[in-house]
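Entry 14. Structure prediction run on the chain below.
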Amino acid sequence: MEEKIKTVAARIAEINSGTKKLIEDNNVPSSIRNEFHLKSNQYDGMIEDLETMRSFTDKQETLENLLNQEVEVLRVRIEWEKDILRRAMKYVK
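Output returned:
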């Protein structure tokens, strides 16, 4: 499961960098820009916190719960990334 999470996280990072480039290279309103940067940092922080918590425990049940939380954060982030990309695309010329 951890390997799947790493694969999904790498794909999200790839999408995120593409979205960042699109936002920076086009006349996207600052409200979308700011939301993108703030939310990206929040999601990155959540993932980092969950990974840190996993490193502090060896209890299997706790590890599984943390992995499930990480999967959920990634799922929500994917939906948000799609939404912000859709909104930013309206300003691409």
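DSSP finds three helices and no strands in the chain.
Filed with the rest of this week's runs.
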